[in-house]
Each structure stands twice: as C-alpha cells, then as structure tokens.
Design brief:
CATH architecture of the largest domain: Distorted Sandwich
Largest sheet: 10 strands, antiparallel
Distance between the termini: 44 Å
CATH class of the largest domain: Mainly Beta
Radius of gyration: 27 Å
Bound molecules: (2R,3S,4R,5S)-2-(hydroxymethyl)piperidine-3,4,5-triol
Helix content: 10-25%
Strand content: 25-35%
Shape: globular
CATH superfamily of the largest domain: alpha-galactosidase from lactobacil brevis
Number of strands: 38
Number of domains: 3
CATH topology of the largest domain: Beta-galactosidase, Chain A, domain 5
Length: about 750
C-alpha cells in the first residue's frame, strides 16, 4: 500500500488521526492491525504532549506538563476516538505546605524536591545525596507497548517506564527499569513499578484479600479516607496474610455487576507492597512493587533493575465485571499456555489419604480406585523421597526412598499409565531439612546470619536460591527427576516463611539483594524446566494459597488455593480467590467426611458440587469408600466433564454470596461460546422452612432460547423445559432445596 492510500485508510478507520502527527497515526494503525482486537491503540499528540492508550473498554491518558513531569489525566471507561484531551497542567501548590509536586497526580515520581506521599523510587548516592527529580526525556511506541524514558535533572539516572495494553480487556501492565549511567554505584532503597491515580472523590471503597493458613481469601471492604492503607508481605513470599490484589469502587454499588471499579495486582512472589493513599484533597494514588522494608539494591555503573510488573484495569460492570476481566486476562495473557490454556484434568492426590506413608502397593491401589471413577491424573504427594517418613527429614534429597520404591518410580508410573492416567509428583525444592544429606553436605546453602540461630518451621530451612550454586542444584535435581521419569505434572510446594534472611557469601552492601535475586532465580528455574520439559505441567502450592500472584502464575498451570478442604468453608475460600484469580487454575479436592479441619459432616454429593467450581480433584482416602460412594463419584466426575469448560474458562457471575451469615450461595458460569450456562446453588442451613430464593441468571442472550435441566438436585415442577434468555434472567428459576448442606447444579443450553 502506498503512503497516501495507507493514510486514507487510517483516516477512515480512525478519524482522530487527522488531528494527530503522522508517526503517531501509523503506530495507531500498526497496533490495531497486530492486536487481537482492532480497538487497541496507543498514540501521542506532539502538540499537546498527551499520550492516550485505548484497549478493551478503557482509555488511559497522561501527558508531559510544562515542568517535564508525567501527569495523569484520565483512566476509566473508553471515550470516543474523536475526543481529545487538553495538555496536562501542573496543579498549583496548596499553600506553602504542599508544593505543586504533591498536588499534581504523577505517573512515576522520585523522592526529591519535597514530595510527601509514597514515591516510586528512592536512591542514596555515594556522596550522601538522596534527592531525585525525574523528568520526561523521550518515548517510543511499538505495537501495544509504550516506553517512556525519564531522567534525573542532573544525574545520569534513567528510568524507563513500560506500559503494555491488552487490547481485549484494557488491562495495563506497567513496570519501571532503573539504569545507572552515573559512573558510580548507588543504592536503591525503594523501587515501585508505577503510581496509578484516581481523581478526588470522597466515596471510594477499597477491597482486598486477607487470610491465614487454612483460612485464605477473605474479602475485606473499607471506605477510603485521607491517609494510607498499606498492603504487603514481609514473609519473603507472597503470603497467606494479604494477597497482592486490590479493587476500588466508586460509590457503594449494592450490586456485583454495576458501578465503576479500578483494580490491580502485582506480579511478584517475594516481599511486596501496595500502598493506597488518599491525599488531603481527596485524590488517590496507588503504588506497588518491592516491599521497601529492609530493601537495598546496589546498582553498579551500567547495571539496571526492573521492578515487578503491576497490572491494573477498569470495569464499569462492578466488581463482578472486574473479576471477569482479570479471569480473561489471566487465561489469555498470564498463564504459560495462554491464550489457550488446556482444560485441567480431573486429578487424584494421595496426601489426605496416605500422608507420608507412601509405597508402591498402596499408591497402586489408590490409582486403580481413582481410575475407576474417571480420574485423569494421579499425583503422589509428599513422602516418596530421601528419608521422608515424617516432616522431620528428607527435604533436599530428591531421589526415591529405596525401601518404599526399591525399583525406583517406574513401576508405579507404568501402572498409572496402564490405567489411562498421567502421573504427577510432589516436590518442595526450595527447602531443606537439617536431617538430610543435602544439609549435612551444604549447611551454608540456607538463608542465615553467621553465628545467629537458624529458626526452623515445620523442621525445615529455606535454601538461598539467590546463590548461583543453589539455583544450579535445584534446577539440576528437578531436571534429572523429570528427565529420568515419565512425569506429566509437578506439585511445587513451599511450606514456610523466611527468617534470618542473610546471605553471608556476598559483600554486606549486596546482601539485601536476596529479596530480588531469590525470586528472579525461582522464575528462571521454572522457565528453564518448562522449556526443557514442555509436556510437564506445574501446580503452584504453598501450604495452600501462600504464594499466589501474577508473577508465579506466568510459570505454573494451576494453583492450590488452601489446605482447608471443608466443602462449606471452601465456598467462601473459593469465592474470595475468584475476586483476583480465574477458577480455571483453582484446584479443589473432594476429601473425607468428617473433614479434618472442623469435623463437619457433609454428603459426598455436596462435597463434589463444592469442588466442581474450579478444577476438580479428589483427595479422599478411597480405601474407605463404599460401593455407593464410588457410584456417586463416577456420576459426579462424568457430570463435571460436561461442564468443566464453562466453569474453568467461562464468565463467572456471583448471584448470591455465601458471606455475611447468608444461608445460601449461588454462582453462575457462562461458557465463552455462549452455548452453555451452569449454576451451582448451596443451602447452608435451612431456617424456618424458608424457600430457597429465586435464582435470576445473568449474562445470557435475552432473545436466544435455552433448554433447562437439573444435573443435580430439584427445581419446582412448573419450571419450563425451555425458555428465552430474558425469561431465565427475569422470571428466574426456583429450586427445591431443604435441610443442611444441600446443593444443586442446573444447566441451560442454548438452542
Ligand atoms: C502442603 C500442601 O498444601 C498439601 O497439599 C500437601 O502437599 C503437604 N504440603 C505435603 O507436605
């Protein structure tokens, strides 16, 4: 195409181009041509110095103001392509106490020049200077990515801000790379990826997720006020306590699927921080990256440091819409097999059945029983290696225990394969028991401060993965395991937090780099293992959900959200999880009753329906099951296979929440292809004979016809066999549920 024709086409597609620079418009055309949807674009207006990023249903706008600061202008629902934004103008100071630097919302800011909110970057230079004032230098746009370079007013400290837009969801990925061109080393003391800004408003509601071991994924909600809410982890890992995710609603919409919501998540599996700060005039700044506590990174001349990725998006369909965007984004842009991750197979795991007491005969028996109900993957959990008879020994020695597996793992793996299942195995490679051959040989390989205690948890210590020799060992030992055995799945566990995070082998001024280098090496090991063993899938586990974030999710196929497998507790645990993460990665086991956590007794059917709202697994001791249990399980596993694509990769609508003393819970999933919708309904405890509330479905095509059937449980007899989407959404369905811990599953199929 010649240039004139190219321009004519562009002007037709993007009328805004007539008022933009030629280069910007060509980029707009290129970005659109290469993206999944023609609606993504990044452009820069050289007259106003305004950047505009559009993707999905979102516009994100900022400009370079007269002071050279990057000033945020707009982030929210997409506006017309013809809308132009005026140049950014720095805000005036608020009296002598609050300079313009503080009142002007900025995209990224160094600590300097009198800035009193949370800065993105803080550096101490060798001469004692700690003042850093960054200004715009240049930018480049390539496809869906914008790089903006900033530099300090006098020192050769460069920061490249990267913005990458997902055309389908409008979710932005931001990071900052600091480069030292000063000729002298300096120490970075605080390093965030980005600041996201929201306009002044007194009615913001903040949501975030908190928890503890076996009690993860509790959704918190609080009004924002002037001041700061700091979410973070100092455990060395993502942590059970708070997850690196937030959402901010404007106003207080009473419905899941209405209202404006900004949301985001960090991709980092080590110490992290997200600070949400409302300033004195009501503006909100959200910063996130490495946790600044005990942080120190010596950047030598010529070196650079990249922050973690900070992802964020906007939905005008409420917190429900925000989750659906996150789920789609994770399935298509985060997971290693994205944009088309495979459906999760139905899995059996031996942990709750056999604990450490594993051997060939016992595992083969469980495998036969699992295969008989339709399980597709058999996983041998902890206890198969080294001297691992309890949690006191063996971690670090990743070879089969010769007493338990005298001929290695092959006989068991062959047996599992002969039953038509793939084979998976448990490992915890970042840890070592002092009672192990590895620790006896390399006591210096663990995190420690010399001549100080080494605090054990679960009788284990943390190997210092930041060390090149430890990184090489961990990679080698797992690579060897996968190279010498036909293993399709690795459950990668991590069962304690850090203590005494010392790294005595490096100079003192570099010891704190352990916080960055450990995690980057963990990612590198997983990346390399995946490259060398492309048919092996990985589960991210940390004593349940202690290490779930968008960083590790780039290298793992599924997640173990909690060690709590009680099916009723799981309703709120699983729902909390889905505020940030897709059910497509959430492994949910059916285990024994009474449940080990709280001794609650529930039916096998109820346990199955609770576990079917994600990736179905079975962790019960099958040796204790009756023929009736096997028959129920066979039926439920078969049912699950007919709805799993919808549950794992569809759109989730939370119709009735299990929280806040609710007697009920209902979740609905609509398949990506629109052909199937399913709803899981639970009655916790029937009171005074109240009927189960009407279920009004969502996300259907109002004019299409859907046939109705109950896969499990009963609806009232007058429910039509088929009706329009409008009928199911407005007239709804009435289920017949009575008693305690009852559940039902309904299905609508589009004709
Ligand atoms: C913690 C995990 O969350 C469990 O599922 C199990 O794998 C144990 N570790 C084994 O030690």
């Amino acid at each position: 195409m010649n240039l004139a024709l190219q321009l004519k086409t562009l002007y037709r597609k993007f009328p805004v181009c007539k008022s933009l620079a030629l280069a910007a418009c060509l980029v707009l055309g290129t970005a659109s041509a290469h993206s999944q949807s023609p609606s993504a674009a990044i452009h820069y207006n050289p007259q106003t110095h305004v950047f505009r990023i559009d993707g999905g249903d979102v516009s994100y706008v900022f400009g370079v103001n007269a002071k050279g600061q990057l000033q945020s202008i707009y982030w929210g629902q997409r506006v017309a392509a013809t809308d132009s934004f005026p140049a950014a103008q720095a805000r005036p100071p608020w009296a002598s106490f609050e300079p313009s630097t503080d009142t002007t919302p900025q995209e990224y800011i160094g600590w300097g020049g009198g800035f009193y909110y949370v800065p993105d970057l803080k550096i101490t230079f060798p001469n004692g200077n700690r003042d850093l004032v960054l200004k715009y230098v240049s930018h480049t746009i390539h496809g869906d990515t914008l790089d903006v370079v900033m530099k300090d007013i006098s020192l050769a400290v460069y920061v490249t801000l990267e913005y990458q837009i997902d055309p389908a969801t409008g979710i932005l990925r931001r990071s900052a790379t600091v480069e030292n061109k000063t000729g002298q080393p300096f120490t970075i003391e605080q390093d965030f990826a980005a600041t996201w800004n929201l306009p002044a408003n007194n009615h913001y509601q903040l949501r975030y997720l908190t928890g503890r071991w076996a009690g993860e994924w509790n959704l918190q909600k609080e009004a924002l006020h002037p001041g700061k809410v700091v979410l973070g982890s100092r455990t060395g890992t993502t942590s059970h306590h708070i997850n690196p995710w937030f959402a901010i609603e404007r106003g207080n919409p009473g419905d899941q699927d209405t209202g404006a919501v900004w949301f985001g998540a960090l991709g980092w599996s080590g110490n992290w921080q997200i600070a949400i700060e409302q300033d004195q005039i009501g503006q909100v700044r959200i910063t996130g990256g490495f946790n600044p506590f005990d942080f120190g990174y010596l950047l030598k001349p010529g070196q650079s440091l990249r922050s973690p990725y900070f992802y964020a998006g906007f939905s005008h369909h409420g917190i429900g819409g925000a989750s659906r965007l996150m789920h789609r984004f994770e399935l298509t842009r985060i997971l290693p097999e994205g944009p088309h991750p495979k459906l999760r197979p139905v899995l059996y795991d031996s942990w709750e059945a056999t604990g450490f007491n594993v051997d060939v005969a016992g595992q083969e028996k469980l495998a036969e029983e699992a295969a008989s109900i339709g399980v597709e993957r058999f996983v041998m959990d902890d206890g198969w290696f080294g001297e691992r008879d309890t949690d006191h020994a063996g971690l670090g020695d990743w070879w089969p225990n010769p007493k338990k597996f005298p001929h290695g793992l092959k006989p068991l793996i062959d047996k599992v394969h002969s039953l038509g299942m793939s084979f998976g195995i448990w490992v915890e490679p970042e840890m070592v028991n002092p009672d192990s051959q590895l620790y006896r040989k390399h006591p210096d390989w663990v995190l420690n401060f010399p001549n100080r205690p080494r605090s054990e948890a679960r009788n284990q210590l943390v190997l210092n993965l930041a060390r090149p020799d430890v990184k090489a060992y961990v990679f080698h030992v797992i690579d060897h395991l996968l190279s010498t055995n036909d293993i399709s799945f690795v459950k990668w566990d991590y069962n304690r937090n850090w203590a005494e995070p010392g790294w005595p082998a490096v100079p003192t001024d570099q010891e704190k780099e352990v916080y960055v280098k450990y995690i980057r090496n963990l990612y590198a090991i997983l990346r390399e293992l995946r490259a060398r063993h492309p048919n092996v899938e990985f589960e991210d586990c940390s004593g349940g959900g202690g290490r779930v974030d968008l960083g590790i999710m780039r290298y793992t196929d599924e997640v173990w959200p909690s060690d709590n497998t009680d099916p009723f507790d799981r309703l709120s645990i699983q729902q909390g999880f889905t505020y940030a993460y897709t059910p497509g990665v959430m492994m949910d086991w059916v285990t024994g009753s009474p449940n080990w956590v709280n001794h609650r007794v529930t039916s096998l059917q109820y346990r199955f329906l609770s576990s079917m709202e994600g990736s179905l697994g079975i962790g019960a001791n099958l040796n204790k099951w009756t023929p009736q249990d096997f028959a129920t399980a066979r039926k439920m596993v078969a049912q699950y296979k007919t709805v799993r694509a919808t549950v794992q990769q569809g759109a989730l609508y939370r119709l009735i929440s299990p929280l806040h003393g609710s007697e009920y819970a209902v979740n609905e999933y609509v398949n990506q292809n629109g052909k199937q919708a399913v709803a899981f309904a639970y009655l916790h405890s029937s009171q005074k004979g109240w009927p189960f509330p009407h279920i009004y479905l969502r996300g259907l095509d109002p004019s299409a016809t859907y046939t109705f059937r109950m896969l499990d449980g009963k609806a009232y007899a007058n429910t039509p066999a088929s009706a329009s989407g409008a009928y199911w959404m407005h007239v709804g369905v009435q289920l017949y549920l009575r008693g305690d811990f009852q559940a039902a599953l309904l299905e609508l199929d589009r004709q």
